[in-house]
Design a protein that fits this description.
With 172 residues, the protein is an alpha+beta fold. The protein has one domain: Immunoglobulins (Immunoglobulin-like, Sandwich), CATH 2.60.40.10. It is built from one helix and eleven strands, in the order H-E-E-E-E-E-E-E-E-E-E-E. Strands 1, 3, 5, 8, 10 and 11 form a six-stranded mixed β-sheet that branches. Strands 2-4-9-6-7 form a five-stranded antiparallel β-sheet, with no helix packed on it. A hairpin with a 3-residue loop joins strand 10 (146-156) and strand 11. It is flat and about 75 Å long.
């Protein structure tokens, strides 16, 4: 084998190994950032919500996006800061609606479209916040028909998590 061929084979091998290692570390980082999504164990947040699951029932792809809202409450005597909001799938986004009608977000799935932006939303003792969840039934194309189950996870600065869930039966 010629020396030039050996060098080319070595370079290609190093590049492939580097890509493999980089992909593995990205997978580990994404897994760590969505700890709690879909049932992984974490500590429970002090924030409360009356209903953690919302079922849209049967929805049509033709109908476009569907939206629901969850009202979360801080029943404690201290402020709680929501540090992150992440979703379990790229088809789902979440917004924190402030009392004045504005909204922070969209918050989505880590690894799709960059880093997860910090939420940094302070909920004072006794206050409420609305979490608006938007599901796009067209995001997965024809493969997205059928039952869906998606999660939105709020993490506070104390490490506690609050998990919200949406469900639907998607039809064409």
């Amino acid at each position: 084998m010629k020396p030039k061929t050996i060098v080319n084979v070595l370079v290609v091998s190093f590049v492939l190994i580097g890509l493999f290692v980089w992909g593995y570390t990205q997978k580990e980082a994404t897994t760590a950032s969505v700890q709690g999504v879909g049932g992984a164990s974490s500590s429970k947040s002090a924030l409360v919500v009356s209903e953690t699951i919302y079922d849209f029932g049967t929805i049509s792809m033709k109908g476009g996006d569907v939206t629901t809202e969850f009202t979360i409450t801080n029943p404690t005597d201290r402020d709680i800061i929501i540090s992150t909001v992440v979703t379990s799938c790229m088809c789902t986004t979440a917004f924190i609606v402030d009392p004045n009608g504005g909204a922070k977000g969209p918050f989505g799935m880590p690894g799709h479209g960059g880093a997860v932006p910090p939420a940094n939303e302070i909920i004072k003792a006794g206050e409420n916040r609305t979490i608006r969840v938007v599901y796009d039934p067209n995001a997965h194309g024809p493969a997205g028909i059928g039952a869906i189950d998606r999660f939105v996870v709020l993490t506070d600065t104390l490490g506690g998590t609050l998990e919200l869930e949406i469900k639907a039966l998607v039809t064409p």
